[in-house]
Prior knowledge:
This protein is α+β, with helices and mostly antiparallel strands. The chain has one domain (3-145): Phage tail protein-like (STM4215-like). It has helices spanning 3-16, 81-99, 123-129, and strands spanning 29-30, 45-57, 62-76, 110-116, 131-145. A 5-stranded mixed β-sheet has the order 1-2-3-5-4, with helices on both faces.
Amino acid sequence: MSILLDVADAVTAEITAPMETFSEDFTPVRKVLPDFGIDELKTLHVTVVPHGDEIANLSRTQTLHTVQVDIGVQMRLGPDIDTEIEGLLDLVEEIAAYLRGRRLASLSAAYWQRAAYQPVYSHEHLTQDRVFTSILTVTYLVAVDE
């Protein structure tokens, strides 16, 4: 299996375990291509998707993988759009805070480096379909012996 998928699976497992840590209940799923119909998004979806892997030499016998994984938070909103967005943004920030600096239990070779979400949410999804979509990109460093 690829390091990229290993990290994505480990991130999925990491955010599955501590449900009492988050303000919303969800079951994260790792997918290669997240494709949900509008009706499916009536409930909260948290999807972990491989994003990229930058590979560099660390030494003659090791390579350094800079792995990025996207965590998508999506849900179709009801009439109280401002309040619902606040709650979903809180969840995205909770996931980022939970992963910050944390070693992945199922992949201890991965070191957290950073997290970012830009833009904070998709204005296009919100205006067209009333769907909140936020993509949190987390980056891990993984040294691999050759």
